[in-house]
Design a protein that fits this description.
about 375 residues, Dna Ligase, domain 1, 3 domains, Rossmann fold, globular, binds adenosine monophosphate, about 30% helix, D-amino Acid Aminotransferase, Chain A, domain 1
């Protein structure tokens, strides 16, 4: 086993499980700090692999390859949480895994995650485990309708979830689970959705980014802006909630807490992600330290960077849909010199696939949002 030193200095090699855009931007930040980066995923020529020093391509279940990867690095972190527990355990034989595999285990399954949060007194909407149609009927009657039925595994961007409006819809809704375990959640009549991205080091240092306000379209994040429009009391509460969760999970690295702000002014945790997050992409151009550099610092045991927001800022996602009528008009979007383009090196532009994003700053949040939305519109204008 390699020595589990607490500080991993520049010049060392960082290992990342997962190879998407989060891994790509992590790699760029790590290399700027003088680290080498090895990526592990089942694919080749990936967004992260394109910019990494080395790309391991094998199934997450191929534990010989996983061990070879872990042996080649000084620390392992994640950009993707749906990695089997055996994979992180095999890595841990050779290098520290940050956050620890147990954090992954808790957060990669909705039911486990919500049960953990509830048992520790963190606020979540009411929920029930669903194994049969009868369970769903009982849950709908106890928690009232509408509600949301989700699969417990591998859900992101609203995949594997549907709203249940009436008792008549139950058989059809249950059928969509396709035999897998489900979770039924009371519907939250939220005013807005926000996220807190926070870092914690092995020594217990904690640092949160400014609060992000998120607007979804078809269950996929569409626009994020910061600072979120929230009372000071709620903003403090959100950060303290995040601090409590990172401490309860003993996170070393980054964790994102997605929150609902209800119409009667309460916070409810929707979901946790033990990593950087789409809502934090504006930190690349608007915070003194971006979320990816902060992940590097946290997992390496370096002092955390300042998360100060330099000015109001916004981000819009660029989905594959924008390629519908050909290559988007990059020059037109960049006509505004304050708009920043980030593309992830993906060849195939499928509907709903995250291909890149635009960041922009402004004197006000409204101006920043207007700036990035207009730039995105110019991408497809004749
Ligand atoms: P998730 O995949 O659980 O993050 O859900 C994706 C989106 O669906 C969330 O960002 C919300 O907009 C919506 N959603 C999820 N759960 C609920 C709920 N219990 N009540 C209302 N909306 C929800």
């Amino acid at each position: 086993m390699s020595s589990h030193r607490s500080v991993i200095l520049p010049g060392s090699t960082l290992g990342v499980l997962g190879s998407g855009q989060l891994g790509r931007m992590f790699t760029i930040a790590a290399r700027r700090l003088g680290y080498r980066v090895h990526i592990f995923s089942p694919d080749l020529d990936t967004p992260a692999g394109q910019v990494a020093d080395r790309e391991f391509s094998a199934a997450y279940e191929d534990l010989d390859q996983v061990r070879a990867f872990a042996q080649s690095v000084d620390v392992v972190t994640f950009e993707f949480e749906n990695v089997p527990s055996e994979t992180s355990r095999a890595c841990a034989e050779w290098a520290p895994v940050r956050p620890d595999g147990s954090v992954l285990h808790t957060t990669q399954q909705r039911l486990r995650e919500k049960t953990f949060l509830q048992s520790r007194g963190f606020p979540v909407t009411s929920f029930r485990r669903i194994l049969s149609e009868h369970d769903l009927f009982a849950a709908a009657q106890e928690l009232n309708l509408p509600g949301i039925l989700k699969t417990t595994h591998f859900g992101y961007d609203g995949k594997g979830q549907r709203r249940v409006r009436s008792l008549e819809e139950i058989p059809e809704a249950f059928a969509t689970l396709n035999g897998s375990e489900g979770i039924f959640e009371a519907y939250v009549d939220f005013e807005k959705e926000i996220s807190v991205i926070a870092a914690r080091t092995a020594a217990g240092a904690f640092q949160a980014f400014p609060l992000f306000e998120n607007v979804h379209s078809n269950h996929i994040l569409d626009v994020t802006f910061a600072p979120a429009c929230l009372s000071e009391t709620l903003a403090t509460e959100a950060v303290e909630l995040a601090r409590g969760i990172l401490e309860a999970l003993e996170v070393v690295g980054l964790l994102t807490v997605e929150l609902f702000v209800t119409r009667d002014g309460r916070l409810l945790v929707n979901e946790l992600a033990p990593r950087t997050h789409n809502s934090g992409h504006l930190t690349l151009d608007a915070c003194e330290t971006c979320q990816f550099e902060q992940q590097v610092r946290a997992v390496c045991g370096l002092p955390l960077g300042s998360t100060r927001l330099v000015s109001p800022a916004a981000m819009v996602n660029l989905l594959g849909d924008l390629w519908d009528k050909g290559v988007p008009k990059w020059v037109a979007a960049l006509d505004d010199p304050q708009v920043k383009l980030h593309l992830y090196g993906k060849d195939e532009a499928r509907i709903g696939r995250k291909m890149g994003h635009l960041n922009g700053r402004g004197d006000t949040v409204e101006q920043a949002v207007h700036r990035v939305r207009s730039a995105r519109e110019r991408l497809t204008q004749d």
